[in-house]
Task: inverse folding
């Protein structure tokens, strides 16, 4: 670690280097010391449009133009979140404090116990800043120390500042020195460290109370915690200007800060200063360099420093080992890691500590070696090394990634038993695990309990929940979380908006997805390739390929690089729109532009060709894949096999099947299911059962679709009992039958199990819910019970949805009554179907009743349901009921912008109900709801268009 010796900077150079920081600190140095600097940092999310005057809109063009003028003149207002402590309250507490501290026997004063609960660090800071001339400094210090010992009262850095001023003005320098050190150590954020630095530099002007070596080193250490390098350089320069000679602690602190950033070159400059000062590098010095080399991904250099330490007469400690072990783990050199770990005791007499084990457990989990991680976890406990919160969190995260959420939850319970408080990372791991399992309500329960454990959710917590709600097609709940983020003064990230855009697209709400795009830009976030890729895909799924083309073509101007996912989505969209020739043109274009297709691109194109009956071209494309450096996937073969089987070309299908196996692919459940469908369609039950036997031999478990196909096959053959046996197997395998599964079962029950070729079995699967009798549904429940798989809430939901789609409200209501008589809990999906069905039948009072029941049972109705009901009530002339319904909606916690988008813009304005829209918007604003500027703009544009019609 040789380093070129550089001359120390002159005082003038040091001052010049610090001038920028001094300017930044100037304001904080001159502020009243009771001012909380973090109150000044207004987040972007606190900027909101000024509340519009009432009445907001009228249907004349003049009112619209006036409103435009009003908004232009007041673009936004800033909402400050200063603590709401009234002057009267503050003044009263100040007087009580003054009376208390004027008494030498203040600890026995009767007002003390009454005063303590209402006293906050900011109020104490404000009181001490008022320069009470008759305040006894000894009593003041004693009182401050008394408060510091109270768990509910934690002095912050701004509380220490006025106390220091009092002590210095009374020349109590020895006590002030201890207080100064306590102040520096109380820094909990970067802002705190900036304040401390500015305040102490200001105090340093007092010749009688200059910063000493101890204070400088403590300040450097505090700044180092937050890796504030530039500030540290200034403090180091101040040390030299004050003629304070740095010691080994000073140099080690500077070296460690640079090494945290992987900046070994700068760290070596301070190593040379150690040598210049006649000092010797110690264990801390070398350990920092091990960290620095590992941070810059140069583990070999870190290993070299580690090896040199004994030669330099410097003993390696557990931190030295931990830094190197962590670096090796990051480089995935686990064999070397385990050798180093096992030799700790023999080579240096070091025992692994909790961090050593945690680093190893984390690395093993990330490498999917979770069984070894659990074994190591058991070993550490056996050796008396108690796991900490981080250890448990790493394991919980690993178990959640393995979908072992019950085991993860059990570990959380163990933590609680041991008195360990889970961190936000712990909860995030569990929330993510439950969301990925589709158990979003359980995840939400964890979210709600976080605060009771003094654990504040962060942006990632919200993103994981938003992802979970979007994945389960409950984007209205995901959007509601956006408002909760803003209330918490958490700025949504790009990931937040991308998840919401994706969720809206998946629910077919493309217009709302575009509104989110504009909201994203309004929040200072630039949409990226994932944002636009999601929009292109969403448009293509809805058949809006021309709009997708327009966005795709505009990306180059926006500086967004088109990627393979976007091309694939666009090619797939054109294939679905039966524009395969254009899809092939896009395919050629992407190759010409150096964007090389992947297996998914080939697959969507092969599928498009097959759907157009161009199997020969599809086969040629499949053959070209390896030549282009792309290995065909199982799906590549599956698409072609499925198409050949649809044409009953069994021989050709088996040829492709054998080719796939020869290429090293193991047939999956989708391919076997394709053969099952083909044989059942031909009435070849024995051949289908042979396929099922081959699946079992190959160890391929049926999935939901495979079970449904088997049920349909046995139903077609008139073997209803066999069909229900398969249903039982489906339940036992952990699958919930889908709506389509129940449609198949009901179809065959309605036909009495007769063969499809007979005249009595002419019911089309699409018409099942139009013709099914209620008695057939009861027969379904009976048969399910006989076969050991009694109906569940999911069963009733699937049936209710089917009936409601065909507007068969009477039968759906009977079904709901039957469900309740069985003691089963209702579901959100059932009530949503009932509400929507009532609205379609213009039975708005019944719809409102179902909606109220939903709310009573804790379900959050979808905004689509509210839109149907409110707009329907207005269409029906029931304005007061519509208004009352909207008013109830405002208490449900929906995202305010989404309410405006889906009810006011997509609902009322599309119906031309301008005055009503204005009235409801007034209600929205009076309720304290905030709307984004782009939502106001959209409303204005909609009103303007409606007025001009």
Result:
């Amino acid at each position: 670690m040789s380093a070129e010796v550089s001359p120390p900077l002159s005082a003038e150079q040091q001052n010049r280097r610090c001038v920028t920081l001094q300017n930044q600190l100037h304001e904080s140095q001159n502020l009243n010391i009771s001012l909380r600097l973090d109150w000044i940092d207004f987040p972007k999310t606190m900027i909101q449009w000024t509340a519009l005057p009432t009445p907001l809109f009228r249907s004349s063009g003049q009112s619209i133009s006036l409103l435009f003028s009003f908004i232009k003149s007041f673009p936004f207002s800033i909402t400050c979140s200063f603590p709401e402590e009234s002057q009267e309250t503050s003044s009263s507490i100040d007087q009580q404090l003054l009376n208390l501290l004027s008494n030498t026997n203040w600890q026995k004063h009767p007002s003390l116990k009454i005063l303590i609960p209402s006293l906050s660090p900011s109020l104490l800071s404000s009181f001490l800043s008022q320069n009470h001339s008759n305040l006894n400094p000894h009593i003041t210090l004693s009182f401050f120390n008394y408060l510091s010992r109270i768990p509910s009262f934690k002095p912050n850095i701004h509380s220490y500042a006025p106390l220091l001023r009092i002590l210095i003005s009374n020349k109590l320098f020895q006590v002030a020195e201890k207080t100064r050190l306590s102040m520096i150590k109380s820094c909990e954020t970067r802002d705190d460290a900036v304040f401390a630095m500015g305040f102490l530099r200001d105090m340093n002007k007092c010749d009688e109370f200059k910063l000493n070596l101890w204070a400088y080193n403590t300040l450097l250490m505090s700044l180092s915690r937050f890796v504030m390098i530039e500030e540290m350089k200034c403090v180091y320069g101040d040390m030299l200007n004050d003629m304070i000679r740095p010691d080994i602690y000073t140099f080690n602190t500077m070296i460690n800060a640079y090494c945290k950033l992987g900046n070994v070159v700068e760290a070596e400059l301070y190593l040379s200063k150690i040598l210049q000062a006649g000092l010797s590098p110690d264990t801390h010095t070398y350990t920092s360099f091990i960290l620095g080399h590992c941070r810059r991904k140069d583990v070999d250099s870190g290993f070299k420093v580690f090896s040199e330490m004994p030669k330099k007469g410097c003993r390696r400690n557990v931190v030295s080992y931990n830094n190197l072990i962590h670096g090796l783990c990051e480089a995935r050199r686990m064999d070397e890691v385990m050798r180093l770990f096992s030799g700790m005791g023999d080579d240096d007499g070091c025992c692994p500590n909790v961090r050593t084990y945690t680093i190893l457990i984390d690395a093993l989990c990330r490498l999917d070696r979770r069984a070894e991680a659990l074994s190591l976890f058991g070993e550490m406990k056996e050796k008396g090394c108690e796991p900490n919160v981080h250890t448990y969190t790493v394991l919980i995260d690993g178990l959640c990634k393995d979908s072992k959420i019950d085991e993860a939850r059990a570990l959380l319970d163990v933590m609680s038993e041991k008195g360990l408080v889970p961190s936000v990372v712990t909860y995030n791991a569990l929330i993510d695990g439950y969301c990925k399992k589709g158990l979003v309500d359980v995840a939400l329960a964890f979210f709600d309990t976080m605060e009771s454990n003094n654990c504040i959710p962060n942006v990632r917590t919200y993103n994981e929940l938003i992802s979970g709600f979007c994945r389960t097609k409950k984007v209205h709940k995901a959007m509601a979380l956006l408002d909760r983020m803003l209330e918490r003064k958490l700025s949504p990230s790009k990931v937040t908006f991308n998840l919401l855009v994706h969720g809206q697209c998946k629910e077919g709400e493309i217009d709302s997805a575009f509104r989110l795009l504009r909201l994203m830009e309004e929040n200072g976030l630039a949409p990226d390739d994932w944002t636009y890729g999601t929009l292109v895909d969403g448009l293509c799924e809805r058949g809006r390929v021309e709009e997708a083309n327009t966005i795709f073509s505009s990306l180059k101007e926006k500086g967004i690089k088109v990627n393979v996912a976007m091309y694939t989505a666009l090619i797939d969209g054109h294939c679905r729109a039966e524009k395969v020739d254009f899809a092939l043109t896009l395919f050629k274009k992407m190759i010409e532009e150096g964007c090389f297709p992947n297996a998914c691109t080939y697959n969507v194109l092969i599928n498009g060709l097959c759907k157009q009956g161009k199997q020969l071209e599809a086969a040629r494309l499949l053959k070209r894949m390896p030549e282009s450096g792309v290995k065909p996937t199982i799906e590549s073969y599956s698409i072609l096999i499925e198409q050949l089987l649809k044409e009953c070309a069994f021989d050709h299908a088996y040829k492709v099947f054998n080719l796939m196996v020869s290429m090293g692919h193991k047939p999956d459940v989708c391919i076997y299911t394709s053969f099952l469908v083909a044989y059942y369609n031909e009435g070849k039950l024995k051949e289908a059962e042979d396929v099922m036997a081959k699946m079992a031999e190959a160890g391929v478990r049926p999935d939901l679709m495979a079970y449904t196909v088997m049920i349909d096959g046995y139903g077609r053959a008139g073997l209803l009992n066999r069909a229900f046996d398969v249903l039982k197997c489906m339940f036992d395998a952990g699958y919930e039958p889908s709506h389509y599964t129940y449609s198949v079962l009901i179809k065959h029950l309605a036909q009495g199990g007769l063969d499809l070729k007979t005249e009595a079995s002419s019911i089309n699967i699409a018409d099942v819910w139009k013709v099914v009798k209620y008695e057939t549904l009861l027969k379904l429940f009976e048969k399910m019970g006989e076969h050991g798989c009694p109906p569940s809430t999911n069963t009733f939901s699937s049936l209710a949805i089917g009936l409601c789609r065909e507007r068969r409200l009477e039968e759906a209501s009977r079904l709901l009554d039957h469900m309740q008589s069985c003691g089963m809990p209702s579901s959100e999906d059932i009530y949503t179907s009932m509400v929507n069905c009532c609205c379609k039948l213009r039975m708005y009072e019944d719809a409102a009743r179902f909606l109220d029941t939903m709310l009573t049972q804790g379900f959050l109705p979808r905004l689509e349901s509210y839109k149907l009901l409110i707009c329907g009530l207005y269409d029906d002339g029931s304005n007061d009921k519509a208004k009352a319904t909207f008013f109830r909606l405002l208490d449900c916690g929906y995202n305010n912008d989404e309410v405006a988008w889906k009810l006011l813009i997509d609902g009322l304005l599309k119906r031309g109900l301008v005055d009503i829209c204005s009235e409801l918007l007034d209600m929205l604003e009076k309720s304290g709801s905030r709307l984004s500027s782009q939502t106001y703009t959209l409303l204005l544009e909609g009103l303007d268009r409606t007025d001009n019609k």
Remarks:
- Residues 11-30 form the longest helix (20 residues).
- The two ends are 79 Å apart (CA to CA).
- The longest strand covers residues 47-48.
